[in-house]
Write a structure and sequence with these properties.
transmembrane helix; L-PG_synthase/AglD; phosphatidylglycerol lysyltransferase activity; membrane; mainly alpha
């Protein structure tokens, strides 16, 4: 991890501590100890397990797209991809660093950059598509709850939906409209050319080769639809595991009469809210969104704050720390090279 990324990681930890401290300002030690003492740790363990399943299933999607008769990726290398993605997402605005970090992880595993780009783009489109589908389902389930409790947030939610939809359309254009990608390459080299003619020519040749590989792989994926269908099914289950996490946390902290579908639907809506906050990890917006949406399910403010913090630790900080660990593990291909 670069020095800049390390600094951002530390800043996000500091910001998280400040947000947690601010959230706890009205919670006494006695209230905290009482809530944790009466917690059902079995349900809380299931929340952690759901996050682990979420990450493992993303590794399954990576293997689905990478593995074929000519190329394989080990399970260890496949698991590195979603973990370093969590790190990249967590330290960059709008989770923009997740894709480049995955690209690095696949390249380190010996996957051609053009093919890796095509795989990650298709994987991202499927992921965003499943989020949009789940949002529409969640809106039907949670619409009445939204209009009765947090009507003012509906505009924010629809903005998040439009952002995800726009991203899907833009990526599909890049994958299946070669002229658009070629235009981006030409524009980039025109910007670089006044600075360095030699570098511009070198980068143009490299980019044109990688873009050609990218479109070739994209075309193969379009014709071979079975991996895409498998990835869609796995991604749907993956997101279901993620959406279950607040449900397990609420049950673990003693919430009664919790509607499973409603809680999952509200978690889908939180994902939409987070996508609009430019701060890495949606810091601030995620905590506020969780507190507003799930305030009705817990009897005390102390339990709500604890639930919010547990949710953030499991869904955000757990992934970032796991990403740092994974980033420093050598890939299978590197180990083979060393052994030779």
């Amino acid at each position: 991890m670069t020095k800049k990324n390390s600094i951002v990681f530390v800043l996000m930890l500091v910001l998280g501590v400040i947000i947690f401290w601010w959230s706890f300002r009205d919670v006494s030690w006695e209230q905290f100890a009482h809530s944790m003492g009466n917690a059902n740790w079995g349900w809380l363990a299931l929340a952690v397990l759901a996050m682990i399943i979420y990450l493992v299933l993303e590794a399954v999607v990576v293997k689905i797209f990478v593995d074929d008769i000519h190329e394989k990726i080990s399970w260890r290398d496949a698991l590195r991809v979603p973990l370093v993605e969590q790190l990249g997402n967590g330290i960059t605005p709008f989770a923009a660093g997740g894709q480049p970090m995955q690209m690095v992880a696949l390249a380190q595993s010996g996957i051609d950059v053009g093919r890796a780009g095509s795989i990650l783009t298709m994987k991202f489109i499927i992921y965003q598509g499943m989020i949009v589908v789940n949002f529409l389902i969640a809106l039907v389930i949670g619409y009445q709850y939204l209009t009765e409790t947090i009507h003012s947030w509906t505009v924010v939610l629809f903005l998040g939906f439009l952002v995800h939809l726009f991203v899907i359309i833009a990526l599909l254009m890049v994958m299946y409209w070669p002229k658009a990608t070629d235009w981006l390459v030409q524009t980039f080299t025109k910007v670089v050319r006044p600075i360095s003619e030699k570098k511009a020519n070198q980068w143009q040749n490299v980019l044109e080769e990688k873009v050609a590989n990218f479109h070739q792989e994209s075309d193969m994926m379009r014709k071979n639809y079975m991996p895409v269908l498998k990835a869609m099914a796995v991604t749907f289950v993956q997101l279901m595991a993620f959406y279950l996490i607040p449900y397990f946390i609420l049950l673990g902290l003693g919430a009664n009469h919790v509607d499973l579908l409603l809680v999952m639907a509200l978690n889908v809506l939180i994902v939409m809210v987070i996508s609009l906050f430019p701060i890495p990890g949606g810091a601030g917006g995620a905590e506020i969104g969780f507190s507003v949406l799930f305030a009705q399910f817990l009897p005390s403010h102390a339990q709500l704050v604890i639930a919010m913090i547990l949710w953030r630790l499991i869904t955000y900080y757990f992934g970032m720390f796991a990403g740092i660990f994974a980033f420093n593990i050598p890939t299978t291909s590197k180990q083979l090279q060393k052994s030779k």
